Description:
Urease, subunit C, domain 1; 2 domains; 9-stranded parallel β-sheet
Amino acid sequence: xxxxxxxxxxxxxxxxxxxxxxxxxxxxxxxxxxxxxxxxxxxxxxxxxxxxxxxxxxxxxxxxxxxxxxxxxxxxxxxxxxxxxxxxxxxxxxxxxxxxxxxxxxxxxxxxxxxxxxxxxxxxxxxxxxxxxxxxxxxxxxxxxxxxxxxxxxxxxxxxxxxxxxxxxxxxxxxxxxxxxxxxxxxxxxxxxxxxxxxxxxxxxxxxxxxxxxxxxxxxxxxxxxxxxxxxxxxxxxxxxxxxxxxxxxxxxxxxxxxxxxxxxxxxxxxxxxxxxxxxxxxxxxxxxxxxxxxxxxxxxxxxxxxxxxxxxxxxxxxxxxxxxxxxxxxxxxxxxxxxxxxxxxxxxxxxxxxxxxxxxxxxxxxxxxxxxxxxxxxxxxxxxxxxxxxxxxxxxxxxxxxxxxxxxxxxxxxxxxxxxxxxxxxxxxx
Length: 431
Ligand SMILES: [Zn+2]
């Protein structure tokens, strides 16, 4: 065995939150970067495993690494920027920040910091928007590859309504995307995502060319934004007048199927929900961003009931914090306002196995079933006085998890490993 980690431990081996398996004294066995076994310590001992080989963290919580299905690599520097809503926020903060990613040296350093930032926050897998620059996209792929992270990203496509320095041109934007896809998609743990930012910044010509690219590479992904604010919906309708509605813009372009991740989906009509459910496209819930930009409350339960797969994401930089524990806390608050109390079990399911399912990567990551890639985190409640105080009084695992998601932050992530290798450790070693 390459590594044996012993701690309080949980995962979701099934396809819903009800499948949670928790061990007060669990062991994860890893060889060659993959999970060999995950079980109760005494049961493994009775099968002949020597517990003396374990790295032991009796007060830590071991779980699969978090998966963030919607985050913007070039926006980490503009988080917590004051006072604007979506369209003005893009103009004022985002586009100037993204322009700097044309510089390969700047992008290289930023990519290293971004990947370390994700790992330090417990996120071992992400689907990220790059900037519109190929060099930044390559820098992010390289940084993720160096850390053996499962990372999906793509160059932003944006050929209108964006300033010089971030606006791309057709047909070069598509040929650049295709060249990146050919170079990086399926290389190790990396994957390519065809990434029109949203209907406001792509011409109909660019969206259909992106759809044609997707048709040529159906095992790539698509990511874009849909129905985030009322102003944006009216604006996109005015520049794509032939589309039935906002979702119809992507549908017409061939960008809506089960490998398409639609960020936000706050103000969809009943008709859009019906067609989106039929398409298989996923809705990505970004509660921190929606609160921060004042965009609205995503109808999570309604979309789920309609049969739309729903992921849960940070959306940094619209969302101010990179750690998905904050996202879970905000999801709870947004859903409280809609009369849907989100359980801790469901929130932790969402950011691990749930997001893996939505991204269609659950055959590789998301839980500790033998054969899966060994991406995991260790959470140490003692790293935060607030968490530690509340967890000490918790009677059940549900109560403990709820305190963690409401009070936790990146400080409690003690270790993050990808393919069984420790990439970030905030304490010296186990005992
Ligand atoms: Zn976004």
